[in-house]
Write a structure and sequence with these properties.
The complex is a heterodimer of chains A (about 190) and B (about 230).
Chain A: E1 2-6, H1 14-17, H2 19-27, E2 32-36, H3 42-47, E3 50-53, H4 62-65, H5 72-75, E4 80-83, H6 85-93, E5 97-111, E6 122-134, E7 139-145, E8 148-154, E9 159-162, H7 166-169, H8 171-178
Parallel strand pairs in A: 1-2, 1-3, 3-4, 4-9
Antiparallel strand pairs in A: 5-6, 5-7, 7-8, 8-9
Chain B: E1 2-6, H1 11-20, E2 25-34, H2 50-57, E3 61-66, H3 72-88, E4 92-94, H4 101-114, E5 117-119, H5 127-136, E6 140-146, H6 162-175, E7 186-192, E8 198-210, E9 213-225
Parallel strand pairs in B: 1-2, 1-4, 2-3, 4-5
Antiparallel strand pairs in B: 6-7, 6-9, 8-9
Helix pairs in contact in B: 3-4
Classes of the chains: A alpha/beta (about 190), B alpha/beta (about 230).
Chain lengths: ~190, ~230
């Protein structure tokens, strides 16, 4: 069971940033349920085997003011994929820095270190961000676009951050994430 | 939030408007009329009728003309959005983008520059699901342009219904055709929808068609009370 975390503060943005993820999971045959981050509770988190934290609109930053709602990530050993805003949340929970950096459109991603979620040497992805991250040493960089760290992974846990939106041009990153070992077979 | 909707008069912009109204106040429509058939963003059949469609919907229309040259038309779009923002006190823009990264990238950049929210409520939506939603929601939609093999003259002027959706789904399987025309293969014109206060009745039209490319042009119409 996959928990999809909606971080959109505007309900209309759900259709743009969350529904496409739900559709990819449905097409892949994965069971999922969606919760808004403000109404997420311990039961939801316990029920999930993996978590995907979605992105949101360019002007939406409420999630950054509410990172205390994500302290559960510190304790978690479940695989987590953070997309755009989700990546920022992952980095911030581990005391990383959020930096102002706008990137909108289709850009090349170069893989520095191959992983189970992204194994091609390079590919094009769709970016829609006005902020990026400088993560702490808890994370390693797996991919870059220009001088931006655009795929990161926690060194000791299966936490992945993806600055671009894989649902647009790289849905295999999401389906690869679904193949990550379940809780119990790791750590 | 007060939003303006980029409006071509086709099914996607109408459905985007419809969805945005559940959460926001759609206060105006914004249309660009391209004078170039090569326009990357705005060339659609019957675009000149958006003023009548806006009247039928009951929303004011910000309509601008553009020469339709590749990046120049983006400056024209930015000016149109800027003008709408000032006149209608907009906080956001809604588009009917489904798959076009070219279009969505450019509108997102313009909105960022102007400090506006950008909403794409149909983004990445399954095309058959989209067509089914339009028919289920009782939209009256006609095919007003075809621009790809194997779409023949018979499609022009046809109403979108379940039978036509099945046919388009078969063409997707056989030829890889985008059933909702997201690559510009098909264009549509909406003549009625639940949120239209009046419906459009077509009084006169003409069809032009050659080599899998054609248009159904509405030459005369009237608005009918519902």
């Amino acid at each position: 069971m996959i928990l999809i975390v909606n971080v959109c503060s505007d309900k209309l943005s759900y259709l743009e940033f969350v529904k496409p993820i739900e559709d990819i999971l449905k097409k892949a045959g994965a069971e999922s349920f969606t919760r808004h981050f403000l109404s997420l509770n311990h039961r939801d988190i316990s029920r999930a085997q993996k978590v995907i934290i979605c992105g949101t609109a360019l002007k939406d930053f409420k999630y950054l003011d509410s990172t205390r709602k994500f302290t559960w990530i510190n304790e978690s050993r479940k695989p987590i994929l953070g997309i755009c805003a989700g990546m920022q949340i992952l980095a911030k929970v581990f005391n990383g820095h959020i930096i102002e950096r706008t990137k909108i459109g289709r850009y090349k991603v170069k893989i520095i270190r191959k992983s189970s979620v992204a194994s091609k040497d390079e590919f094009y992805s769709y970016f829609l961000n006005s902020k990026a991250v400088e993560p702490t040493e808890d994370f390693e960089t797996l991919g870059e676009s220009g001088n931006l760290k655009c795929i990161i992974k926690h060194k000791h846990r299966r936490f992945y951050g993806c600055l671009f939106h894989p649902e647009v041009l790289n849905p295999e990153i999401i389906t690869n994430f679904l193949k990550e070992p379940m809780l119990g077979s790791q750590c | 939030m007060r939003v303006g909707v980029l409006f071509s008069g086709g099914k996607d912009s109408c459905l985007a408007l419809h969805k945005s109204e559940s959460f926001h106040d759609a206060v105006c429509l914004i249309s660009l009329i391209s004078e170039s058939e090569e326009s990357y963003m705005f060339h659609v059949p019957n675009i000149e009728l958006t003023d009548r469609q806006a009247e039928a919907i009951g929303l004011p229309l910000v309509q601008r003309r553009t020469e339709g040259k590749k990046e120049k038309e983006l400056e024209d779009l930015k000016r149109a959005i800027c003008s709408a923002k000032a006149d209608f006190d907009l906080e956001g823009i809604v588009t009917g983008a489904v798959k076009s990264i070219y279009q969505s990238t450019r509108v997102q950049r313009i909105c960022k520059q102007l400090g506006l929210w950008c909403f794409n409520p149909l983004w990445l939506k399954d095309e058959i699901e989209l067509l089914n939603e339009v028919v289920k929601s009782k939209y009256e939609v006609i095919i007003s342009g075809v621009f790809a093999f194997p779409l023949d003259r018979e499609f022009l002027g046809k109403n979108l219904d379940n039978e036509l959706i099945q046919k388009l789904a078969r063409l997707k399987e056989e030829y890889g055709l985008s059933p909702a025309g997201e690559g510009g293969e098909i264009e549509t014109t909406v003549t009625d929808a639940p949120f239209f206060k009046k419906r459009l009745e077509i009084l006169d039209s003409e069809v032009s068609y050659k080599d899998y490319s054609g248009m159904f042009r509405i030459k005369n119409l009237r608005l009918i009370d519902k």
